[in-house]
Amino acid sequence: MTFPKLDPTGLWLGRIERPGIGPCVVTLRDGQVIDITSKTAPTVRDILERDDAADYVRTVPGEALGEPDQGHQWLAPCDLQAIKACGVTFAGSMVERVIEEQAAGDPAMAKAIRGRIGERIGDSLSNIVPGSEAAAQVKAALISEGLWSQYLEVGIGPDAEVFSKVQVLSSVGFGADVGLHPISTWNNPEPEVVLAVTSRGETKGATLGNDVNLRDVEGRSALLLSKAKDNNASCAIGPMIRLFGDGFNLDDVRKADLTLTVTGPDGFVLNGSSSMAQISRDPMDLVKQTIGRHHQYPDGFMLFLGTLFAPTQDRETSGGGFTHKLGDIVTIANDQLGALINTVRLSTECPEWRFGASHLMRNLARRGLI
């Protein structure tokens, strides 16, 4: 896969696997990959925790490794951070979660349910501020009609859904395979903006993510969320974190438009999008609901902000909707954040995750970095 052309004015932070060495922290300068791993900051976590993170990445000496496409194995651009995700943050996807729940994970039933309740709860929720008096009134009305759902609770109620997506260091990066649990027959990609947040709750930058979603598993029961979300290679992040500064900030995240393309081995093409301008909760509200006196993250965290995208386009059978086929190539892109490209496999066919925090610490110790 061709590595995307990233904005040369941006300040980029990422990771690659160097053969015979191990994971290395890199940036981009003048079109070159620069290894900036050092005793001062041997991990991405250490760099982001610095007060001068942006200046450090801009000026720290490093080793030039050639252009981004010169055979580098790109890793997820985070390392010791927890991987957290917010769900049901857009009215459109919220409706689809309700439909999944009502259909109990059956895509054939979903089309009929969509037609029955879509008009009654769809656009009417899009301008409601979660947790407001107006939201409480809608909640009461939906309960009286027998349409209330746990997804609507987190969509328009006071508390956001924030869950642990996958384990530390288990995310895959640009060009890697992403995995579907083999029990799933109804699933889709979820294109999202992912924030890089420090242990102090400071948002230092953003990147792209694919929160691979098993619609049938979660649709059967929300208590299966972990089984639906946390599987081998089920989380992709990348290509690199763009640090705030140099003309890029949180307001750019708030108005970011993401495009998604799925190109199948069968010739099928799905095009979708997700506009952050339509999010129901401000990104900083989601950060504050994740970290605070109630919950600490000593190594910081990466926060998926949710998606507007919920595909209903039929792929094979009428009413069957969209689901992945093995070999699908998923491209999530944004003008300011680049493109995250991955190939869909079964989780049981993706390389097993064998490199955890203890392995990283031993590797850094052998290299004299800690």
From TrEMBL:
Pfam families: FAA_hydrolase
Signal peptide range in chain numbering: none
Gene3D superfamilies named in the record: Fumarylacetoacetase-like, C-terminal domain (3.90.850.10)
Molecular function terms, GO-annotated: hydrolase activity
Keyword Metal-binding: yes
Domain Fumarylacetoacetase-like C-terminal: start-end pairs: 205-345
Record's keyword terms, sorted: Hydrolase, Metal-binding
InterPro entries: FAH, Fumarylacetoacetase-like_C, Fumarylacetoacetase_C_sf
Family note: Belongs to the FAH family.
Protein name listed in UniProt: Fumarylacetoacetate hydrolase family protein
Organism lineage string: Bacteria, Pseudomonadati, Pseudomonadota, Alphaproteobacteria, Rhodobacterales
